Each structure stands twice: as structure tokens, then as C-alpha cells.
Amino acid sequence: MIEVSNLVKKYNERTAVSGVSFSVKKGEILGFLGPNGAGKSTTMKILSAFIEASAGTVTVNGFNVASEPRKVKASIGYLPENPPVYTGMEVESYLRFAARIHGVEKTNVKKSVEAAMEKCGISDVRNRLIGNLSKGYRQRVGLAQAIAHNPPVLILDEPTVGLDPRQIIEIRNLIQSLGGEHTVILSTHILPEVQATCSRVVVIDKGKVVAEDTLDGIAARMQSNARLTITTAKDPKNLLPEIQKLDGVVSTSVGKTATEGEFVVYVECQKGSDIRSMISEKIVHANLSLLGLFQEKLSLEDAFVRLITVDENLDFKREDTQHV
Ligand SMILES: Nc1ncnc2c1ncn2[C@@H]1O[C@H](COP(=O)(O)OP(=O)(O)O)[C@@H](O)[C@H]1O
Ligand SMILES: [Mg+2]
After folding, report:
1. How far is the CA of 195 from the centre of ligand 2 (A)?
2. I need a surface site. Which of 73, 122, 173, 208 has the fewest CB within 10 A?
């Protein structure tokens, strides 16, 4: 339903999106997860045919955003990062106006707007001025304008930013209920949002996709991995290749230590494999004087932090995040 291939966006000299590729299947709710400045909004504006790409190809609902922007716009509902607020308009009039702009036939406007208000739970505020609504209700109005013309694709840029916890839950439930019927891509910088609403996630950092998986997949792949912190009195450097070869070991790295004469090594292990006894034997056997062996589970939040720092310098970056 959405195909993004080698997308690049440069703002003058600054590269905001740097060769991004991913796809979204029909009926799927895809989370587009990344920290601030990662390039999420830029990507979504290009998907919505609001700004042009510097390079790459994007098709939405079978239409090319560069050559068929009008058809793309007719296929999507877009909730921008900062939705325009027509504070002086009443909810229903605004939604009718938006539906007309999105090409809904005059005779169908009433019915379409009615359905959208119903879905978004705003029928009872239809005569209120948008400017007098709470942020949560305004966001619902934003969602209602995105779905009123019943587009096959919804592009939602940080849909719950600025809402209170109760509103967040309501909006997430609403988005979830839109999946299946609509194909949804939603951006967010917080992992729980993805966990609550999406079936699959594309993680973006510094303009690049750094991970892509189902939510279960990422959790299974990462959550249960364990990290061993090993402290020795002698430099264990020469033992690392041997540890790396052990069944269940994902990676090894050298850590920093605050204590002189102590050495720290981190070993990341796959879930279900407990290699503590094997490692301690090897260390004792090599006469390295084992001072400590500590195992911790990597949580999904950790996993996310790792995902967005994955590169050839991974080991060094991870050292920095460790407090020994
Ligand atoms: N109109 C613009 N002009 C210049 N730089 C921009 C513009 N919009 C975004 N950027 C830059 O592009 C990068 C990605 O921004 P953005 O797509 O808004 O990220 P996100 O939505 O993930 O926070 C950032 O470094 C941002 O400063
Ligand atoms: Mg943004």
C-alpha cells in the first residue's frame, strides 16, 4: 500500500533522510519510531506529497508521489505534526469544509462527516468552537478530518503528542480500531506508543532505517537477551575470541572500569542460554582472577536504545552508557 525506496531528502546542505526504504501492507498499522530529529516528519510529509523528495521513489496506494501528487493526496488522510487549528470554526462545519477539500461529493458530505465524528467520539461537541476544545478533543477533530473522506491510507505524525495519559489511551484505541479498514503509518518517538498500537515497527535514526521487525519479533529478539558483566583482576583481552565462539554468545565488548587493576567485559547472550558457569570456568582456567560475574536482562527499552545505536562503533557506544 505504501512503498518507499531509497528515499533521500536534503534541506540545503543538511540531509534529513538518507536512503530510507520500507513498505506498509494493506490494513497494517506501522509504527515509525525514532528520536527527535530522526527524519520522521520529513518522511511523512513526502509520503503525503506535501514536500518533494531529493531522490528515491515513493508510491502510496499505487500512485507515485512525485508524478501523481493529487492522486496520492486523494488516497490519504494526513494528521500533520502541528495540525492547522481553525480555532474560530465549529467542529462540524470545519469537518464538512475539510471533507469538501478532500473531494467528498456534496451529497455525501453530511453522511461522511457524521460517520467520522461517530468514530472519533466527537458527535456531542459538533457545535463547539474548535478553539474551546481540549487538546485531546482537538486531536480527535484532526483525526476525524483525516478519515472523513474514507481514505485507504492514514499518515499520522506523532498523534498523541501533548495529550494527557487518559487522552493518549483513547486516541491509541481509536487508531487501533482504524487498522484493518485503513492502512496506517504513525510516527512516534516513544516506544510504548508502538507497543500499544502497531503490529510492526520501522526504527529510524539520523535519517536511516536501523531496524525493522514485528513487535513480537523485536521483543523476542532483544528483550530476553541477557548481558553478562564480568570483572577480572587481569586483562581478559586474549580470552575474548574464545568467549565469542561459545554457543549463545551474541557479542563481547570491553568495558570501562572505575577501579584501577580491574577489567570489565560485557558479553551479550541469546535468550535461554546460560553460559555463566562455562565462562567462569574459562576465566579461572586462564588464571585471570574472576572478581565478579553479573547477569542482567535487556529490556525492550534497552533494546531500542541499542537498536538506534547499532553501527560498527556499537561496542564503544555501549561502554559509554555503562556505569561500572
Ligand atoms: N524545513 C526544514 N529546513 C531545514 N532543516 C529541516 C527542516 N525540517 C526538518 N529539518 C531538519 O531535518 C532533520 C529531520 O527533521 P524531522 O523530519 O522533523 O525529524 P523528526 O520528525 O523525526 O523529529 C532535523 O535535523 C531537522 O532539523
Ligand atoms: Mg517530527
Report:
1. 19
2. 173
Residue range 192-213: mean pLDDT, rounded: 88
pTM for the full predicted model: 0.73
Q: Residue 163 — left, alpha, or beta (φ > 0 → left; ψ -120 to 50 → alpha)?
A: beta
288 and 203 part of one domain: no
Same domain (yes/no): 61, 165: yes
What is the tens place of the pLDDT at every residue in 2-61?
999 999 999 998 999 999 999 999 999 999 999 889 999 999 999 999 999 999 999 999
Cβ(223)–Cβ(242) under 8 Å?
Answer: no
Instruction: Specify the CATH number for the domain of residue 228.
Output: 3.30.70.260
CA separation for the pair 239, 307 (Å, rounded): 27
Question: Last residue of a domain, which of 203, 219, 235?
Answer: 219
Give distance in angstroms: CA of 75 to centre of ligand 1. 25
Q: Where are the beta strands (DSSP E) in the chain?
A: 2-11, 14-24, 29-33, 55-60, 63-64, 76-79, 153-157, 183-188, 200-205, 208-214, 226-232, 249-255, 263-269, 290-297
Same domain, yes or no: 9 and 137 = yes
Do 146 and 101 reside in the same domain of the chain?
A: yes
Q: How many domains are there within the chain?
A: 2
pLDDT at residue 56 in the model: 97
Ligand 1 test: best mutation among 11, 12, 47, most atoms within 8 Å of CB? Answer: 11
Contact 227, 296 (CB under 8 A): yes
Domain co-membership, 57 together with 187 = yes
Q: Which three cell numbers stand for residue 256?
A: 570501562
Query: Which residue segment(s) compose the domain that 279 sits in?
Result: 224-321
